[in-house]
Amino acid sequence: MNSVEVKEQVRLPLSKCLELVLSGIKFRLFRAGITVTIIALAVAFLMVMLSESLVAREVAGAIERKAAPRKLLASWVSLLSTPMNEAQLTGDLAAITGPQDGRYVEFKAWGNIRDDATMAQLQDTARKQLRYTTEFFDQLKEGPRRRLVGPNQGPAIFAYLADAASYADFSEKLKTTERHLPGTTAEFEQFLADWKQASPQRQAIIKGHEQALGPVKQGLGTVRPSDKLAYPDKAFLDLLAQNRFQMTEQALADVKREAAQKLDEEQIRNTLSVPLAKQRLAERKNLAHTETDFQVLFDEVSTTDGARWMAEMTASADFVNAAAAQGISRVQFGLTTLPPCPLKPKSESFSKDNAGAAAFKKATADYTAKLPAYNIAMAPLIDAQAKRIHEVAQNFLSNQNLAKVEQEVAQSASSGGVGFSGRTLWLIIVSFLVCVVGIANAMLMSVTERFREIATMKCLGATDGFIMVNFIMESVMQGVAGSVIGAMVGLILGVLRAWVSYGMMTWTNFPLTQMLEAMGAGMIVGVVVSALAAVYPSYVAARLAPMEAMRIE
Amino acid sequence: MSEQPSNATQPMAPVPAPTDGKRPVIIRTRGLKKIYQMGDVQTHALQGIDIELYRGEFICVMGPSGSGKSTFFNMVGGLDSPSSGRVFIDEVDVAQLSAVELAFLRCRKIGYIFQTYNLVLYMTALENITVPMAFAGTTGDEARDRGMALLDMVGLKDRWAHKPVEMSGGQQQRTAIARSMANQPSILLCDEPTGNLDLKTGAEIHKILLNLNKERGVTIICATHDHRLIDMADRILWIRDGKVDRIADRKDITVERGSIGGEEHE
């Protein structure tokens, strides 16, 4: 008996395979189009979500960076006005980045803490406290919390739990509570012990700060801390340093800028409390008197013309006198020292007799004589004033915009990680599942229609494997086409959506490399899905018996 | 089995006369049985067939529907495996072959001609013919040349670029015959080759098949009802109820062909 000498059934060269597959697809273009559309839709959906959330993440980061100086100013203002409480201290301790952080040095100095190890311990305990507070105690509703720790809230809870008897009571009641402490009970108990031990040091820091605050407050006098921080003089900075307050160069620059912005914004607002200004604004904008408000004012002075108008108006003697009549001191913007404005004499201030009338007449002439000199002196300074007004108004508007965008970002579908909420991820997975089913269905129909063609191929020498590869390749090609189209369409749509929500910020912080990576990932997913969907139908095709070619329907 | 010459236009040497009086056998079956299992029902399609088909002969297989004729056809054509018994195609036990080896067999040793032509609709005639060549490893210019030569053999040289849709039934069947000869097989399996064709076109097909058999020594196994094809055969095999009913040489059979009003009729 002979044996068949099979030199390996010659593998069809890839080009020939591709040729066969492509001509097959061309023949069935409409059916192929359906598969391509299905994949394109699913990939586009994925890409829209991905690209929008990528932009959202970048924008959120940018907003946070921009908002940081403002937060810094707020924390300094509170530091310089009131003594700290336990909660603040915990927050600050937890937020310290490292030994070079200003707060680190301050706390160490105020608390008279000798070594870095103790500081590290304090920080660690503070972080744990924060964690237990946010992840457990804050999550409790009023009722359960009262049951567990009585009327205590915030850091007082831990003070309460530091006592052994209270803690025993607490842990008993904890067993019957549905929420659980994060981590183990042993960890919590260790933390409480550390907390108790660190308590005196924390008190020392608070006391130290209070002591340091005294001289600083004296130095401030009646000036508000934020106002002083806007244009601090050397004496004040020295005073801060003496009392162990730490401010890095960068921090100082940021705080000064923010404080100056705050101060000048307030100045701009103050002008509207003078009725004359309101009237002038209404005239300028052709609005009713009642329609003029801060928004209108800021919008107006954010233009160079408007800023100039305001600078001139606030410099004019009429305005200064009107403001003085209301008890508002000189409105100025920035640190320009303005020349004193002559005050218009009021007839009421003079006696009603002849001497008074003559004095009034003299005072009026005096005033009129001084006015030109004042205007001349004022002229070159108006430019600087206008510039500053303009700058402040623009910053104000851009911060307004930032707040709006921040709201949009908070509302968007992103949360954590790449930026998919659970629901969005679920939707995407379902859409791809539907894809798989749809494509598998279309392919099965195709296989059923082509049974004779497949069987004939087998008669001509095609192996089962060849048939399977053929069909999978068909599906993969359609998947590639669909993925490419879908990825591009999805990317464009997603970016457009982001543009509508976040405005120009989309473009200033465009995450280009990440977008391209996302596109690549989306395409890979599309191709993989289409290949997976083809597995069962091509298996069916591969198993077709060659004698099926003989069957006559 | 000797290798075929690669030049397809040269006729093969005629089959050498047997020296010991025994003709060379190309297909042999021993106790061939096939049982189909459909749910609970077992169908005994073939119930033990012992037969020898000689190399270079033209044999027609006949039988009523349900007689197991198609099953027998599938067996000797390497399209299906027996449930029990043996099928030797060129002394090779088909049942021992793996799927890949069977595919090789179908590619190189057996050519197939179907009643429904079974051409690939989105390929031209020449491309259709070169498909089995690609499976056998011949591509490019060599394949194209051989393909054109084959088309010439069936008289379709100028239709090489036409798709099946642009050809008549007879032309399609001729293309199919050319395709079946692509790798110079020694066996040609024909399932009602003229079943879908009119008389005149059928005659052309008959001529080609006869030529293949006589000039090139290809063994032709035909399942047909066409009396003119039967007329050309060397032997005729009747299968009934899964067994060989009768097998006879052509010269022992009378085939009557009728005519109606002068026109030839089957």
Describe this structure as you would to a colleague.
The complex is a heterodimer of chains A (553) and B (266). Chain A has helices at residues 14-27, 29-81, 86-95, 102-110, 116-135, 142-149, 155-162, 164-175, 185-220, 225-230, 234-242, 249-271, 275-285, 294-301, 304-315, 317-325, 354-411, 422-449, 451-459, 464-502, 505-508, 512-542. Chain A has 553 residues and is mostly helical. Chain A has three domains: 14-66 and 419-550, no CATH class; 70-259, no CATH class; 262-411, no CATH class. In chain A, helix 5 (116-135) packs across helix 9, helix 15 runs antiparallel to helix 17 and helix 20 (464-502) packs antiparallel against helix 22. The longest helix of chain A has 58 residues, at 354-411. The two termini of chain A are 38 Å apart. The mean pLDDT of chain A is 84. With 266 residues, chain B is of the alpha/beta class. Chain B has two domains: 25-109 and 185-252, Rossmann fold, CATH 3.40.50; 121-184, no CATH class. Chain B is 30% helix and 27% strand. Chain B has seven helices and twelve strands. Chain B has a six-stranded mixed beta sheet, sandwiched between helices. In chain B, strands 2-1-4-5 form a four-stranded antiparallel beta sheet, with helices on one face. In chain B, strands 11-12 form a two-stranded antiparallel ribbon. In chain B, a hairpin with a 2-residue loop joins strand 11 and strand 12 (263-264). The termini of chain B are far apart. At the A-B interface, helix 1 and helix 19 of A face helix 1, strand 5, helix 2 and helix 3 of B.
Largest interface: A-B, 32 and 40 residues
Number of domains of chain A: 3
Number of discrete domains of chain B: 2
Strand percentage of chain A? under 5%
Strand order of the largest sheet of chain B: 6-7-8-3-9-10
Arithmetic mean of pLDDT of chain B: 84
Largest sheet of chain A: none
Structure summary:
The complex is a heterodimer of chains A (553) and B (266). With 553 residues, chain A is an all-alpha fold. Chain A is 75% helix and 0% strand.
